[in-house]
Amino acid sequence: MTALTVTAAGKNYGTVAALAGVHLSVPTGELAAVLGPSGCGKTTLLRCIAGLEHLDAGEIRVAGSVVAGGRTHVPAHRRRVALVPQEGALFPHLSVADNVAYGLDRAVRRSGRVDEVLALVGLEGYQPRMPHQLSGGQQQRVALARALAPRPRLILLDEPFSALDAGLRADLRRDVRAALRADGATAVLVTHDQAEALSLADHVVVMRDGRVVQDGPPTEVYAVPADHWVASFVGDAVLLPGVVRQGRAYTVVGEAPLNGGSGDGPVRPVTVLLRPEQVRLTPVDVPGAGQITGRVLRHDFHGHDLLTVVRLDDGTELQSRRLNDGPMIRAGAAVRVSIHGAVRAWHADEVPVTAEPVQPVG
Amino acid sequence: MRPEALAAPALRRFKRRWAPQPFLLTAAALALLVALLPLGYLLIRTGEAGADRVATELLTPRVGWLAARSMGLAAVVTVAGSVLGVGTAFLVTRTDLPAPRMFTVLAALPLAVPTYIAAFAWLSSVDGFAGFWASALVLTLCCYPYTFLPVAAALRRADAAQEEVARSLGDHPWRTFRSVTLPQLRPAVAGGALLVALYVLSDFGAVALLRTDTFTRAVFTAFDLGFDRTGALVLSTVLVALTTILLVGESLTRRHDARYARVGAGARRPHVRIRLGRGRWVVALVLTGVSGLALGVPALNLLRRLAAGVSRPGSLPEIAAAAGNSLTVAAAGAALTMLLALPIGLLAARAPGPVAATIERLSYLTHALPGVVIGLSLVFFGVHVAYPLYQTRWLLTLAYAALFLPLAVAAVSAAAAQAPPVLDDVARSLGRSPLRAFTSVTAPLVAPGIAAGAALVFLTCMKELPATLLLRPTGMDTLATELWTHTTVTAYAAAAPYAALLVLLSAIPTWFLAARTGLLGPEGQDSEGWR
């Protein structure tokens, strides 16, 4: 059963197309993340699903019934699609209990549903507090409880964690996901933070310029990105020229099996994607670990892991990531470089020439 | 593709851009039209008088003399008020002056004394107190809070870290003040000074009582004597022109504000206060002296005359009748003003766009117009266009609305900011209809701010003098007009009870203003908006 189906959705602001034929489908009980840089149309998509904006073209179905499309526009309050905006937007004049009960009918208010959802988000006993007495994270929890309470057909989360500290964010993400699961809710999360999308969602929808460029499970989006823009947006990427022969990719740092994409066929030039954790370095005096050598330029130390930049003898620079568990190779040392695991490759003519690699945000 | 399929989204786009909320937009445009009626009518009448007539009226030595006096008075009061205001602000915020909060309140309080009451107090205590310098003294003492309040707020807001950086780079404290702090104050000083200048240009009560010939007094006299109504009209257009020049000046200084923004977030530290040593008691004495002149003289005088005024036979029923009239016309004025301000303020806050911004800005146009001009224009309007309204309270109510609309629009916009549209979105996403969302979320959040705005307009209407004098139906006296009538025939004791009542009523919005700027709270807790 699909809770949400978006078909060829289009929306223009003046001459700017905010949505240009978006397709999207979210199965009941799942959490989908719509990931994209600012201005990609993800918030417009969310507002169209909520019924706060009118769709110019296409169709939106919630739980099978059309809510927008053609001449139909079901108003926001009849869609049973609840919103969790950025920074919570709690009603400042209502207590926590009254905020949560806001979407409930009088009869349901006394059924204990308010206490139930507050327990789900870990805020038992906070009922009489006022919003200004809560921390930012607690406000977001109440906003989620408020959205869960009337058992909507769909919950929309609009960058709900972006205003919080990094430490708080990780805890809250975990708890939000647990609460959504426990209540069997279907949710769409909009975010520009790739770590958030990959760690939280059952499937990730990557958007750019009003279009969906990829839609799949987080592991697939990371390992087999649709193009090199997606590859750079969802994580650190090393892009190298190479060729494909008989299901294997050959580059200056060696060969590796292919992971999807361009398979057999004639020998063609390709762009090969390596994730830094696939690039292994060994001191040059250890024999047999790859023939390609280079020198360590510098280290970026992150505590739990280490990103090392290496310059090969032919001038190519690449990054290697490893857990912080072995002896550190000092800068300037000579190393051997090898590739670990399968890689993604695109024919060189598949790579959009204009697309600049984008550094992931957050 | 069918042509209508192409046209429909284009039309929708057009409507969204230019008419975000058709009902609100229409209501706001109508409200604006009503508020701009006096100004528009004034211009039409002046146009009808013809260029020759206007020229013969304007190009006289008397008009030149009036212009020189009005501008001279405005200049003297602005300079004196700025010096007094900036000095006091610096002393209470940055030095170890004893009892800084008491001096803050004392420096804000003169706003509660309408100029005609201050003039009355001085007039009735000092024999022969009249003329240019008398007016300058009274107006300076009444107006310096207009520079004091914004400058004190700016001094509080200024980032202590910037001054500390300057000090750490080797600057002497005074050099730091000159090179770092003072430039940041410039927008506040300029804004305050312009308010003072506008206030002096439009003031009628003090200059009329102290027999100083300025434009406002000349307009009123020309009209009151009844033989030269076109002359009054032409004189008031000159006043409008002077006001416009000042307003343009104000908007030019505002554009510079952006340069003094505080960069970065984080908690503000309190400023280190300069030690005045033994001089602090001398400074305290001087400030007490200023407050004594601004507040003590009117207060003592009122108290001295009050007993005689109240015990005068027949005074109590007269006071009661005037108070009743004041209450009813002020209530009607506040009601109409808020009614007009609601769509304009809501439009500006909720549906921003080029049209909404233009409407809001135009609604501020009458802000600086003297009450004399508004009143005069509406007299002409009543006589020539809407005769059934002439000599009724309705015309007076309309004048109040035109005069105080900006006050109300500001209050409504600030109140609407308390209920951002996202709350409305959430309410609707939780299954509440737009009407339910409005009554359960938007209305409760916006109501307190609007009520406070209404109270402010109400109290401001009560102390309004010139438009009330011109437009009140014959025989209807308010507190302000009774005070005026008694003072002009030197019946000072009879005037005292009205003055006392008016001061009492005016103190309330002053308290509001001072509380809003956060000057009364402990340092670091600046209150913002209506709480």
User: What's the total count of β strands of chain A?
Assistant: 21
How many helix segments of chain B? 22
Q: CATH homologous superfamily of the largest domain in chain A? A: P-loop containing nucleotide triphosphate hydrolases
Largest sheet of chain A: 6 strands, mixed
Supply Rg of chain A.
Answer: 24 Å
Q: Helix fraction of chain B?
A: over 70%
> How many domains make up the coordinates of chain B?
2
For CATH, the homologous superfamily of the largest domain in chain B is named as MetI-like
Topology, number of strands of chain B: 0
Structure class of chain A: alpha+beta
Provide the spatial order of strands within the biggest beta sheet of chain A: 7-8-9-3-10-11
Form type of chain B:
globular
Q: Assign the structural class of chain B, choosing from mainly alpha, mainly beta, alpha/beta, alpha+beta, or little secondary structure.
A: mainly alpha
Shape estimate of chain A: globular
Strand content of chain B: under 5%
Question: Level of helix content of chain A?
Answer: 10-25%
**Known CATH architecture of the largest domain in chain B:** Orthogonal Bundle
- Give the quaternary arrangement of the chains: heterodimer
Distance between the termini of chain B: 55 Å
